[in-house]
Amino acid sequence: MRRLDRVSLALAGSAAVLIGLSGCGSDAGGEDFARALASASENVTWEPFPDDVLAAMPSTRYVSGSEVDITLSDAVVTGRFTTWEPGESLTWEGDSDTGTEVGSDDSPMVRRVVLELQVDSVIDLRDGVELGDTVSVTIPVDATASADAMGDGLVGLGDVVVYLTPFHDDSWAISLESALVGEVMDDGTVDLPVLDAAQDGTALNMLRAASPALTLGDMERAADADVVVDLAD
Hints:
Blueprint: H1 6-13, H2 15-18, H3 32-40, E1 60-64, E2 68-70, E3 75-91, E4 100-102, E5 110-125, E6 134-142, H4 147-155, E7 159-166, E8 171-174, H5 175-178, E9 181-184, E10 190-191, H6 193-197, H7 203-209, H8 216-224, E11 227-230
Parallel strand pairs: 1-11, 6-8
Antiparallel strand pairs: 1-2, 3-4, 3-5, 3-7, 5-6, 7-8, 7-9, 9-10
Helix pairs in contact: 3-4
Protein name: Lipoprotein
């Protein structure tokens, strides 16, 4: 079956998705990254959209007829972001889908932050996907937002659970426009800072409301299930 990876395509080439960060300039505080990532997705819609956070795991497949097999992530892992560095600075002209790399001081429309994620365990994995002990994760940052706040905020989370989807060149993105990253607490519960930062009435806010309590145990049990959602129903 053919996989349609809308999240990867949007991150790789759509300025419209990323411009949602405009106006979210940095200020002091460790939650800047969560507010910025939530703002980036306020005007984004996904089809299909998961009923809750567990339905975005690779164990839930969305099918339509015999040709489409969609998952909203390829892997769900625990670990920690250990380091980050600035990535490309891009701008878009006309109807270009790919963007043009420019200097960081040449008024880019978006910058990318590249983080190293140390993988401690794999909770769920799409068939055929392979992961190493460390993976590269790319995050888009609007030019008006702070790359430092984004990188430092994610590294500062400590133990995390991350939904991964392919980006490009052996790099990964965080699923649902970088929204599905959680902070793992000592008791095994999972906080969802980006969903918590979403404004009332947005898709991410509704997803948070549908996932009021989440633990690593919930995710491990969901990974053992094989759920198929027929989009034609």
